[in-house]
């Protein structure tokens, strides 16, 4: 479960990115996080992944308290969460298989586990047969599928995606969002930051709106522009 309680984030240069936000996302939920540019969405994502810590308030992710987490606990917390970015962030000189196996080896998976798991996730994301491709031999949509496979490979309970369709055309964007919906239906909690109103409104999901570092809306189904 994800829980933010009165979270404030002030960056070193004095920017008040979050001004006291609270919300919870239950296990198995799918939530869109929307809002204008600079409203604080990526800051929320970075708090969830442990890249930054809150200035005040509490951030709980899958039982870990992110403000107080010890260095020793961080790898265990990270295993519970798979992260997807706009720019894919694949290792460009490694094959699809190697991108995924490296992610598994990083958490101590055995060769046997790797051999069993990678075909399963590649099938799930629709990339069977692409094991030996290099990222730049794939389309943008396919590269994002590899990134989703990598995020899933260690079986996290939660997937967090920061503008996952930002570099894709509308048809590819819809496919990627549909894939995330399917992954959610299989039991994984999914949190997606996006600007794309049309895409959000295509899916009947929870929409949390951030505006100027505050929660400006939290409702099912529609991306309403904050006033
Ligand atoms: N490392 C940083 N240091 C200082 N200020 C930052 C830093 N990162 C973000 N900010 C500021 O914090 C505020 C929120 O930024 P954030 O990236 O969370 O917004 P966002 O909603 O994700 O925006 P976008 O949709 O444009 O990606 C902005 O005013 C931004 O300039």
From TrEMBL:
Homodimer. Forms a membrane-associated complex with FtsX. The keyword Cell cycle applies. This is Cell division ATP-binding protein FtsE. Part of the ABC transporter FtsEX involved in cellular division. One of its GO terms (biological process) is cell division. Residues 2-227 form the ABC transporter domain. NCBIfam families: FtsE (TIGR02673). Keywords: ATP-binding, Cell cycle, Cell division, Cell membrane, Membrane, Nucleotide-binding, Plasmid. Its main location: membrane. Belongs to the ABC transporter superfamily. It is a peripheral membrane protein. Transmembrane segments: none annotated. GO terms for molecular function: ATP binding; ATP hydrolysis activity; transmembrane transporter activity. GO terms for cellular component: plasma membrane. PROSITE patterns: ABC_TRANSPORTER_1, ABC_TRANSPORTER_2. It is found in: Cell membrane. It holds the Pfam family ABC_tran. PANTHER family: CELL DIVISION ATP-BINDING PROTEIN FTSE, IMPORT ATP-BINDING PROTEIN. Gene3D superfamilies: P-loop containing nucleotide triphosphate hydrolases (3.40.50.300). SUPFAM superfamilies: P-loop containing nucleoside triphosphate hydrolases.
């Amino acid at each position: 479960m994800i829980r933010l309680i009165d979270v404030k984030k002030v960056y070193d240069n004095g920017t008040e990115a979050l001004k006291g936000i609270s919300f919870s996302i239950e296990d198995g939920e799918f939530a869109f996080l929307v809002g204008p540019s600079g409203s604080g969405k990526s800051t929320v994502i970075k708090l969830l992944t442990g890249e930054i810590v809150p200035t005040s308030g509490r951030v709980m992710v899958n039982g870990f308290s992110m403000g107080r987490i010890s260095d020793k606990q961080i790898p265990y917390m990270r295993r519970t969460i798979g992260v997807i970015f706009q720019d894919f962030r694949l290792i460009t000189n490694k094959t699809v298989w190697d991108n995924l196996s490296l992610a598994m080896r990083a958490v101590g998976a055995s060769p046997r586990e790797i051999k069993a798991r990678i075909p399963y996730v590649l099938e799930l994301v629709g990339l069977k047969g692409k094991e030996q491709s290099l990222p730049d031999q794939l389309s943008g949509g396919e590269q994002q599928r590899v990134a989703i496979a990598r995020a899933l490979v260690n079986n996290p309970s939660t997937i967090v995606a920061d503008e996952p369709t930002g570099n894709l055309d509308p048809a590819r964007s819809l496919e990627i969002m549909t894939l995330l919906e399917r992954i959610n239906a299989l039991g994984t909690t999914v949190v997606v930051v996006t600007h794309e109103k049309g895409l959000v409104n295509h899916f009947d999901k929870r929409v949390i709106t951030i505006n100027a570092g505050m929660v400006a809306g939290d409702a099912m189904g529609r991306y309403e522009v904050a006033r």
